[in-house]
């Protein structure tokens, strides 16, 4: 019997397929792009755009579909990720080796386990301060913040709640995010 060989970032970079990522030493196919996913990803970029703009309220680099190398066997591609410029002064390029300060994953049907468990635990271990999960079909968002070594929920909202149409959610609390637009 042949021993299981964990794939590395080098194996990932040698792959011809652009829609793959490295999770737990395995090169896995990313989900097929869906309209709901693309709309939410675009709208999140629009809502958070001021933080990436020189005249905005925060000094961030925010990118979509960006690969981050956390270790030799972990290189997921995040739907959205952001770095504070004080930690990463130069704009990220290529595969980024610095863990983000914020990650947002948009849940795709059939791939929930990766985002809600595998990446959740990886980002928690790596000390990523903020992790957001968005379910386009349910029009909901859960935001986590690292407290010590553990994530805790700091926001859990749906687009149907009229009291929560606009919210200030860390780490972007300087601007009220229009959740009806983002999730709707």
TrEMBL record:
Which Pfam families did the record assign? Uma2
Q: Note the coiled coil stretches, chain numbering.
A: none
- Domain of life, per lineage: Bacteria
Which InterPro entries does UniProt cross-reference here? Nuclease_put_TT1808, Restrct_endonuc-II-like, Uma2
Report the protein name in the record: Putative restriction endonuclease domain-containing protein
Q: Signal sequence span per UniProt?
A: none
Organism, by scientific name, is Thiorhodovibrio frisius
Which part of the chain is the Putative restriction endonuclease domain? Answer: 10-155
């Amino acid at each position: 019997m042949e021993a299981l060989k964990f794939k590395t970032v080098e194996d990932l970079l040698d792959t011809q397929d652009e829609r793959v990522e490295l999770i737990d030493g395995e090169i896995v196919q990313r989900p097929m792009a869906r309209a709901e996913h693309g709309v939410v990803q675009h709208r999140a970029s629009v809502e958070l755009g001021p933080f990436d703009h020189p005249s905005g309220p925060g000094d961030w680099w925010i990118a979509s579909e960006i690969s981050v190398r956390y270790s030799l066997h972990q290189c997921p591609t995040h739907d959205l990720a952001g770095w504070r410029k004080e930690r990463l002064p130069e704009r990220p390029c290529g595969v980024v080796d610095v863990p983000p300060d914020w990650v947002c994953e948009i849940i795709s049907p059939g791939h929930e386990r990766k985002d809600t468990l595998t990446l959740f635990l990886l980002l928690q271990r790596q000390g990523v301060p903020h992790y957001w999960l968005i379910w386009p079909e349910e029009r909901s968002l859960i935001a986590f913040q690292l407290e010590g070594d553990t994530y805790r929920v700091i926001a859990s909202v749906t687009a149907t709640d009229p009291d929560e149409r606009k919210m200030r959610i860390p780490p972007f609390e300087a601007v009220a995010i229009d959740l009806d637009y983002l999730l709707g």
